[in-house]
Design brief:
Six copies of one chain form a homohexamer. By secondary structure, chain A is an all-alpha fold. The first copy, chain A, is built from six helices and no strands. Chains in contact: A-B, A-C, A-D, A-E, A-F, B-C, B-D, B-E, B-F, C-D, C-E, C-F, D-E, D-F, E-F. The interface between B and F is small, with 9 and 9 residues.
């Protein structure tokens, strides 16, 4: 694994700030749309985070998977629920997702050990 | 669009039967795992179909999208909920998903017009 | 090929209108960002359309390829330039892009035969 | 399915000729490398066609899959062997490959019915 | 490169055990199907490992590539054969696979230096 | 980030030399086509590097992104131009490209700090 959740969170925050500070208005708007896509509406924030997690798994993006695991945990997703999402991703995306599943599992363990207030990541 | 929901359903059923009849035990088992991944458990069948839909959208597979739209409609997913799933897929997967979104929207329209008992597709 | 440029344009316009009329504000904003990404700025509209074309080719989306070929032609891209973009896409994306390249070539032929004012597509 | 094997073969040949006639030397060289990659060497032509088939399946390109099924059949690949390649692709690439698998199966049926000399496709 | 073959093997084994111990029956079955897909049948184990390798290369998964290189080496794949698989993957998947090819080559070197009994990896 | 630009450059050069020295003629030819695809012709080298960058971003290959950022900087691409390419990639490829965008931004910073003659990378 490439760094702790805390290191990853800091890197993400620092780089996002730089990208947003660079002043491209359209990129700023995209980041805003990205944040708002996961806010509760017709579907709850929890369900939307599950959607973000399964999409990240089948597209095989470790940083995105980590982000959504942390957010899912904050929304109260249980281990049993996590494993059913992992299974859907595994069936849809195939064995090529397994290395990401191993890292996802490790992130989940790391996440469960963190005191609640520390788990909050900046936006993906 | 390449055929009605009904034509697509019949093609899928006919070919799935042939594939399963060909006698490769491991393929039969995979198809079984695929069916069971969407059965209600820790997460409801409805949420799992939403997961299947968003995964199909970001992986850009029209037939898979159609299948999960029909199943989501059967599980009572509302238009507002569909659009929030479409939005998550659009943000995660980008504008490259838009042609699939157009076809998804057309399938949803077709699906809403069908009498309930006819919408049932065989397994994806 | 699945329909003429004109049929494709009409389908795209009709479905985009329906999607935008459905009233999901975030999807509307995404479509707006998509339109604006190709407007001239630090880079010209022509270069941005070339970027859109190569991205569509390596991601293998026929409708997106068609859209950007039409727009590139409107921006005055020559056959020699088109072929160099096709070559970059072929080298980066591999032989898996060749079926899309065949259809791209056919669309380019179709596009060259159209009177200028008819080639305008609605937004992708 | 979008046309018979024979129609597909003619379309491929006609468009490949046009692309090669357009005179971009690097594209011509790429097409040449593509042809030669499947010639027997340290590995037999049969094994290389199996490699081309599994790669086309997991990358989900119907035209490429069709091409390699025809070539595999010409190299004497049996139904049992085809199904084991399909199974590897299904496990590696997941259920998202299933719609392609259905069309692959249909192409294989079509291919088995053709008299041997007619099955020959031009290069992918 | 992110760790030696031995470290990678231990990480894989440790995490796979945890995932299987978590008790989701469908994930356990998927892992079982994954293992069995590469067992000799109509096609030999060697050919199936070559299929796994080319699929992993075009899908660009370093851990999967490493796993199949080790298994191919165990099945007696020669350097000349490896390079022909690499070439098929390069032509099909394009230059985007080159960074993975560099790491594949390094893993192959590492693999050739290992005493035979140490090269055995747990299942991918 | 996994190593400095200089370390990455040396690794790439060393491994490319080994791959080319291994004597597979077709791989050598592919590497040659890869180099030549970015040489100025009907389109300038600068525009072709922009094409290579956007293709690498939407296909999400960090090493390829890094390579093309360095080459774009050598061709005089400005920060404003870089950001418009990043925006096209973000819109086309979606939020799944954001982790790569963060690393791209960091590479751009690193690149801007390097004295001109040191930024030259061997071929991708």
């Amino acid at each position: 694994m490439s760094g702790s959740l805390e290191e990853l969170r800091k890197y993400r925050e620092r780089m996002n700030e730089k990208i947003l500070a660079a002043g491209n208005l359209q990129i700023q708007r995209f980041f805003n749309l990205d944040t708002r896509a996961y806010e509760g509406g017709a579907l709850s924030a929890k369900i939307k985070e599950l959607l973000g997690l399964v999409a990240s798994l089948v597209l095989r993006c470790d940083d995105c998977i980590t982000y959504h695991i942390v957010r899912c945990a904050e929304e109260g997703v249980t281990d049993g629920e996590f494993f059913e999402v992992f299974n859907v991703a595994l069936v849809v995306g195939g064995s090529i997702t397994i290395p990401h599943l191993r890292r996802a599992f490790e992130r989940l363990e790391e996440c469960r050990k963190l005191p609640k207030p520390n788990t909050k990541l900046g936006k993906d």
